Amino acid sequence: MKKTYKWITALLCVVAMVFCFTSCKQHDDDDDDDDDDEVVVETKVSISSLSITGSDFVPVGKMISLTASKNDSANTGSILWSVSDDSVASIFYTEDKCIVTGVSEGETVVYAYSSENASVYAKQKITVQDYSSEKEGTLTGYGDYVIYKFNADSDEPYSITLTDGSGADMRFSASLSSSSFSKSSDDTLFYDEASGTKTFTPTKSSTVYVKVTPYDSDGTGSYTLKVSGKTQIKLEQDSIKIYSATLQGTFTRKDEDDYKVYSFYAEEKETYKISWTCKDDEAVKVSAKGTYYGWTGSTNYDYFSDEMYSSKTITPERSQYIFITVKPSDASNASFSLTVSCTSSIDGISLLLDKSVTNKILTLNFTLPENHYYTYRTEKFYATAGRTYTINWNNTSNVSVSAGTSSSSLTDYFSENTSGSYSITPDTSGYVYVRLTNTGGSNTGSVTLSATYKLDGLVYTYYAAFD
To answer: Does the CA dihedral 246-252-254-258 come out positive or negative?
Structure first.
């Protein structure tokens, strides 16, 4: 019995020891699980320092970029920007980048600061300088131009801006040579560009020439040219050539049969703009004709007739005199201005004939250039049978006059007359052709047609010049 008791006691001790060991192991496993679930909290570091890099100068109308850097350990907050005087410079930013635009000459300060603490900031002093030069002008018609110049430093950027005035349509070109404005020239920086801004950087210090010209026949108007850079610029006018001539006229007779004839000499294959304006509601009708008279005969050109619009362009195939007829659009007074413009030089417009219904004398002014032997011009007027017409002419020397019933038969009335006056009485009504021939030298003078009644006028002209 005692032995049994001892055995039971020993067994209970073993069970107790196993239980204790198992409990301790479970407790250790629970401690290990607690270690795995532990959360590590990151330390917040605010922006404590800032710095700005970038230029401290910006021209008016141009932009520069600034960059802000913060302390490496900063992990909270963002970077904001501000400017002390937005009338001098304006800003646009995204976090660490800031674009500064020059507005007007002066100085201002750009700040980069912490969104969490405005006392943490960096600043950059900005100087805004208007390194530009500006010119304004007006071009009066097709073929006009003006050239400006300025000195440019090598490897420095420049911008040239052309702005059209109201209703104008201008073009501009830039070159390193004042006489070389062409698309293919090596000196050309840009050629025949529409109004706007062009930039360039010369590879060597040089004088830059800028040419402004109307785009087409409707390009008359004003413009503004501006050059900008990083150093002081002086834009100067180098040359200007206005290839145009203008005359004014007035009709005071209340009759639609009044007219005035103007003339100018046109070179072959040159484009000419003929434009006219009237006062208030007044209006005129304009026509243009020309004739080339060569060895093989004459070629007539009708460019336009009775136009009431403000301008027309013509391009003669051969060199010739152009004759412009202006007459009232109705039986009322009219004042007008007539302009001829072209791409090459023009000697001017001359009033060839001024006729009203009460005129009984018509005067034709003429010029026969020197160094053209047997240069001549032929006029014609309508004559009524049985009426007497007197033709008078004056000149410096060496002009003979012939008259006939056709341009190819100029001996019917008289031939190569140099006396200065001749009267004719046609047997039949029709045109009378009068030819003035230059027999040598330069001659400028006038021929007068007179009668005792109203004249229909000298209605057409031929011109020929033989070297």
So the answer is: negative
